[in-house]
Amino acid sequence: MGCISFNIIHIPTERKQSAKRQEERDGSSSSALHEGGNGDTSTIYCRFSEKFSIMTSSTLMVQKKVISLTKPIIEDAITNLYCNNFPASLCIADLGCSSGPNTFFAVLEVVTTVDKVGKKMGRQLPEIQVFLNDLPGNDFNTIFKSLPKFQKDLQKTMGAGAESCFVTGVPGSFYGRLFPSKSLHFVHSSYSLQWLSQVPRGLESNKGNIYMASSSPPSVLKAYYEQFQSDFSMFLRCRSEELLGGGTMELLAVALNDMVSEGLIDEEKMDSFNIPQYTPSPAEVKCEVEKEGSFTINRLEVSEVNWNAYHGEFCPSDAHKDGGYNVAKLMRAVAEPLLVSHFGDGIIEEVFSRYKKIVADRMTREKTEFVNVTVSMTKRG
């Protein structure tokens, strides 16, 4: 048995576009992936949303909120693992781990949940092997330097049991095989799977946009969706082998286009820039999972988190009270490397200064929230 869960984040306008894309394809309205196991049990836990590779206090707050919303599903998956087959050694993989404070946040939650559920069921804590995966260019040295803090955090929660947790770095793309066959019990992927393996081909007609937008022609939406289908199917196939059996982007384009009109950015460069990201709707995820055929969906839950990570929370400084500032920091963490590689670093400060103002204006006029869709699935056979 295996379990998978996904978390998908959309802004309201993107959610409507995603629903519209689904309706155009099949005439219907659209209102996970983690697997592992020993013997007959394996689990997959995944989230679709925006990956924040550079951590700020506001990005960490967003992740904490989302983790808290989906924690019950992690507990269910771990409980099922214990009930069906209790392993002496538990192998966990975190795919797309990035680097910085967020790297160990999700892993800490999973490992402490294993300890909590085990104690509740009267089980002895198994040895836990954690594999941290990201692309070869990821800063693994920073991750390893953060290990002592992670171990101290584990000791505070688990006591002597923290000594039974071992961490290894695994560079490589999760759109290919990373581990030996039937070697994992639990696979976690947080805010990574919406990033495609490459920019889709055939986007020449997406002028003035850097992503899928309301003004993008149908051929662009189709190209993004087909790239997602290909990538996600490959991800599922690879994890199935390795496990034991059983929109804020559109507002950024507004800022860039304003700079094009003022002659600060070359129009040809703008028209050739596209972001390799696709945030699928719940219906699209369900469709691809069923098509691939390795997993059965158990649960699907939808939750919302405000764009401003500190909405309704204590703000440690006046800067954090500025919703536009917080969202701009989130987007900068994601988009800055892409923008620098394409446009150079000379425009960055101006782009995000304008972007912050545009976002702040939008937030005063609309309800702005990320929509998280979490899906729990079981591996067939």
Explain what the structure shows.
With 381 residues, this protein is of the alpha/beta class. It is 45% helix and 15% strand. It is built from eleven helices and nine strands. It has helices at residues 12-26, 57-84, 103-120, 140-145, 147-158, 218-242, 249-261, 267-271, 282-292, 323-343, 348-365; strands at residues 2-3, 7-8, 42-46, 89-95, 127-134, 165-171, 186-189, 295-306, 369-379. The chain has a six-stranded parallel sheet with strand order 1-3-7-4-5-6, covered by helices on one side. Strands 2-9-8 form a three-stranded antiparallel sheet, sandwiched between helices. β4 (89-95), α3 (103-120) and β5 form a beta-alpha-beta unit. α3 (103-120) packs parallel to α5 and α10 packs antiparallel against α11 (348-365). The longest helix has 28 residues, at 57-84. The N and C termini lie close together (7 Å).
Strand order of the largest sheet: 1-3-7-4-5-6
Shape by Cα distribution: globular
Strand content: 15-25%
Low-confidence stretches: 1-41, 49-58
Q: Outline of this structure?
A:
This protein has about 375 residues and is α/β, with parallel strands linked by helices.
Q: Which helices and strands, and how do they pair?
A:
Blueprint: E1 2-3, E2 7-8, H1 12-26, E3 42-46, H2 57-84, E4 89-95, H3 103-120, E5 127-134, H4 140-145, H5 147-158, E6 165-171, E7 186-189, H6 218-242, H7 249-261, H8 267-271, H9 282-292, E8 295-306, H10 323-343, H11 348-365, E9 369-379
Parallel strand pairs: 1-3, 3-7, 4-5, 4-7, 5-6
Antiparallel strand pairs: 2-9, 8-9
Helix pairs in contact: 2-3, 3-5, 7-11, 10-11
